[in-house]
Amino acid sequence: MARSVNVGKGMIAGFAAGLVGAWAMNQFQTVWTHAVDGHESESSGGRHDGRDWQERGEDANATELVAQRLAGTALDRSLTRDELSVAAPFVHYAFGALMGAFFGGLVERSNRVAPLTGAAWGTALWAVADEVAVPMLRLSRPTIEYPAEVHLQSFASHLVYGITTEIVQAGVRAVM
User: Domain locations in the chain?
Assistant: First the structure.
């Protein structure tokens, strides 16, 4: 029996899946960073930081900068390191969940799950968000200033996010 199309349910499943995908992405990046640098991230979010690789050559990363900008607007002050250790991962998980919800809605709308859809979604997020939007918003240096290994880590991390999000979204949606 074919499942009925329900974009709202797809988005809810995608939201949950995006959280899991963001977590999987962070775990993957932690392993990669440890293999390359020989230690865990020193960023404020620790192993829950979605962009620890950015701090190899910079004092902060995009999620920390977004959290600080939001705090400056909402609180009229900068966050302490302890506050940032919560706020920066929150920014990453919130973005992952929102992108997962969007993905879930798209999957539902198409009424099918094509092979590698999650990989394509992760690739699109990497290209649009990491490679274009983050530098344009001055949340990182220009893309061309990073070595190939950094781009590869970011790309692979987004593949992990996309594939995990696809698998979890399909599983959650199947029981709704």
Answer: 10-174
Q: What pLDDT digit, counting tens, does each position of 22-45 carry?
A: 999 988 988 888 788 776 666 655
3-state secondary structure the chain: CCCCCCHHHHHHHHHHHHHHHHHHHHHHHHHHHHHHHCCCCCCCCHHHCCCHHHHHCCCCCHHHHHHHHHHHHHCCCCCCHHHHHHHHHHHHHHHHHHHHHHHHHHHHHHCCCCCCHHHHHHHHHHHHHHHHHHHHCCCCCCHHHCCHHHHHHHHHHHHHHHHHHHHHHHHHHHCC
Residue 99 contacts residue 133 (beta carbons within 8 Å): no
Average pLDDT over residues 42-53: 57
In this prediction, residue 108 carries a pLDDT of 87
Asked if the model's pLDDT at residue 15 lies above 60, the reply is yes
Tell me what pLDDT residue 44 has.
56
